[in-house]
Write the C-alpha cells for this entry.
Amino acid sequence: MAPGWMQLLLVAVVALLLFGGRGKISAIMGDMAKGIKSFRSGLKDEENEDGKQRETINVTPEKDKV
C-alpha cells in the first residue's frame, strides 16, 4: 500500500519543522521554557501591593470523624 499525498505532505511538514533552518528546535524549546517559567512565576505571585501574602481560604470539606 503506497502512502497517499496527505501522508507525504505530513512527513514533509514534520521534516521541515525539524530540519529546516538552523536552531528551529532550540528556539521552539526556548519559547516553551519561557512560557512555563512565566506560568510558574504567575502561580507563585500571590503578594498584594503591601508585600504581604494573600490570605488563603481552605475550601476542602472536612470529613466527619466517627
Notes: The chain has a mean pLDDT of 77. The first helix runs from residue 5 to 19. The two ends are 66 Å apart (CA to CA).
